[in-house]
Amino acid sequence: MEDPLVIAGKEFSSRLMVGTGRHRTMQEMIDSVRASGTQIITVAIGRLNLQDINEKTILDYFNWDNYTILPNTAGSKTSEEAVLTARLAREVTGSSWIKLEVIPDISHLLPDPIGTYDAARELVDDGFDVLPYIHADPVLAHRLAELGCATVMPLGSTIGSGQGILTMEEIEMIISDVEVPVVVDAGLAVPSDASKALEAGADAVLVNTAIAQANDPVAMGESFKLGVAAGRKAFLAGRIDRRKSAISSSPGAGVNSG
Question: Using CA atoms, how far apart are residues 216 and 224, in angstroms rounded to an integer?
Fold first, then answer.
């Protein structure tokens, strides 16, 4: 596999993770996920109805031989709730992967840094591969990486806001500092946002609302696939240096040598 994304020892050819919330229909969800080319799908375990064994859930709509499930702790307001949800997710899915979200206030949906750190420490000790959702805080990202988290997932802007990446300076600091994959998560609205993240050296992005709520989710899923691929290729190619002055692309052109 050329230039794989490696998380917790697993290799992936796609650098786009997708969420399963806010889709208008299950069929749109399935089709847009397929079009995105993703290999990692995140599912909010705490929001599934697991009491009625006859009721289909999101887990029933995918062939999990073809995808890696990334359960998340969405809906957890405290570290204790997040740890409990993570353990439930492991029982339900058999996966030790967990996207850790600790969000105490639904009015702004910003992650709790202290609760996230506390939960991450307990879950890492319990054998989980922890992918923590955080504000774009370089200090916290460093601490979580040191703790043994599998990735860090700084937000671009608030969840579902579609504002794009407002935290690029901090994300670039995180990229340059930590030795685990950096996944930009939340606020991305269009493929150019994803491309910008990958161009800056982020290892992957996670997108949900921008695809689920697009007028054409299938086309948007495919568009994000292309944006991520372009961004990664541009990063590997190496951008030119920024200059304060112009420089001719054709040196010597138009000079009269006679």
Answer: 12
Tracing tokens 């290729």 back to the chain, one arrives at 233
pTM value is 0.91
- Between CA 255 and CA 61 the distance in angstroms is 66
Q: What is the 3-state secondary structure (H, E, C) of the chain?
A: CCCCEEECCEEECCCEEEECCCCCCHHHHHHHHHHHCCCEEEEEHHHCCCCCCCCCCHHHHCCCCCCEEEEECCCCCCHHHHHHHHHHHHHHHCCCEEEECCCCCCCCCCCCHHHHHHHHHHHHHCCCEEEEEECCCHHHHHHHHHHCCCCEEECCCCCCCCCCCCCHHHHHHHHHHCCCCEEEECCCCCHHHHHHHHHCCCCEEEECHHHHCCCCHHHHHHHHHHHHHHHHHHHHHCCCCCCCCCCCCCCCCCCCCC
Q: Which domains does the chain have, with CATH numbers?
A: 5-237 (3.20.20.70)
pLDDT digits (tens, 9 = 90+) for 166-199: 999 999 999 999 999 999 999 999 999 999 999 9
**Of 78, 80, 109, 85, nearest in space to 99 by CA:** 85
151 token code pair: 């990735």
Catalytic residues: 99
Which tens digits make up the pLDDT trace of 41-53? 999 988 776 777 7
